Amino acid sequence: MMIKIGFIGVGNMAKAIIQSLKNSSNNFIIGGFDINKNFKNTCKNLKIKQYSSNSELVKSSDTIFLSVKPQQVSDVLSEIKQVIKNQMLISIAAGVSIGKIQKLLGKKIPVIRVMPNTPVLVGEGACGYSFSKELNVRQKKIAEKIIKSFCKIYFCVKEADIDVITSLSGSGPAYFFYIIEAMIEQTKAFGFDETKAKMLIAQTLTGAGKLLLTTGEEPSILRQRVTSKGGTTEAALKIFEKNRLKEIIKKGISAAYKRAKELSR
Ligand SMILES: NC(=O)c1ccc[n+]([C@@H]2O[C@H](COP(=O)([O-])OP(=O)(O)OC[C@H]3O[C@@H](n4cnc5c(N)ncnc54)[C@H](OP(=O)(O)O)[C@@H]3O)[C@@H](O)[C@H]2O)c1
User: Which of 51, 153, 235, 243 would bridge with 126, disulfide CB 3.0–4.6 Å?
Assistant: First the structure.
């Protein structure tokens, strides 16, 4: 069965998601609307139907994908309020709750709130998602088919846990980039080539992630396997422990979680 998906906002995330949807199945008929001046070209490149307004798009879609920036959500929803029927709406807008979407629309339509991350852009996304009460079994199946197309790891969670997901996999890429920045700065201090350092670190991070996902081992076990007594890794870890790096990381994640809760309120 064909599913008509209309994207409100065809920016960075939406473009990657549309590409994944196209690669995953021929059952999606995809269209979009965006106010960006390059929108016409975007539609041509992605080979999707170009709508001339958000309301026109909503009228012709079974599923609406909300992919504008959080601060643009309320304008967009007031624009489609009159024309939306009971179609399901998938939102990736960070910090915008299901209740807020339904309130702005003045209707309890079926909503799926997804918290993806930037690795979606390269087909390596992870996300958490929540269903509103209004979804039926068929709609849940369709929503999951869509989510699976752009995320490799995905968990259905209660909406309160979206804030945990935000502080973990949502903001997570930035935590790793921050560590990578420090690693590059230090290798530069050794006089080593920055480009080579970047590539070695990136592959190390990818490889460590793969080890964790494929072996099913605890991270502490995988860490111990690299750490021989009196060796180099142990020397580094001693410094991390002494300076309570774990505590700093936990505090950072807590701050992100607290902020996510404040923003979704
Ligand atoms: N990036 C992440 O890590 C991440 C993670 C999780 C969730 N998200 C969420 O994903 C969403 C999209 O992020 P993004 O990085 O893809 O943003 P983006 O590139 O700015 O895409 C949003 C698009 O919507 C367009 N737009 C603005 N107002 C509109 C309107 N009234 N009608 C139709 N289109 C409109 C924008 O046009 P202009 O460019 O002209 O404004 C832009 O092309 C955000 O809500 C964000 O919270 C992002």
Answer: 153
pLDDT tens-place string over residues 115-132: 999 999 999 999 999 999
pLDDT beyond 90 at 264: no
26-72 pLDDT, tens digit per residue, is 999 999 999 999 999 999 999 999 999 999 999 999 999 999 999 99
Q: What is the pLDDT of residues 156-204, one digit of tens each?
A: 999 999 999 999 999 999 999 999 999 999 999 999 999 999 999 999 9
Atom in ligand 1 nearest the alpha carbon of residue 95: 47
- The Cα–Cα gap between 226 and 151 comes to 30
Alpha-carbon gap, residue 46 to 62, rounded angstroms: 20
Are residues 152 and 178 located together in one domain of the fold?
Answer: no
Q: What is the percentage of the chain residues whose pLDDT exceeds 70?
A: 100
Phi, psi of 107 (to 5 degrees): -145, 145
253 and 185, same domain (yes or no): yes
Q: Which of 10, 34, 42, 104 to mutate to test the pocket of ligand 1 (most atoms within 8 A of CB)?
A: 34
Check whether residue 134 and residue 217 sit in a common domain.
no
Question: Is there a domain that residue 67 lies in?
Answer: yes
- 117 and 209, same domain (yes or no): no
Same domain, 144 and 191: no
Alpha-helix runs per DSSP H in 64-193: 73-80, 98-105, 137-150, 162-165, 172-189
Whether 244 is in a domain gets the answer yes
Q: In which domain, by residue range, is 177 found?
A: 170-264
CB distance 57 to ligand 1 below 6 Å: no
Of 8, 19, 33, 35, the one to substitute when testing ligand 1's pocket (max ligand atoms within 8 A of C-beta) is 35
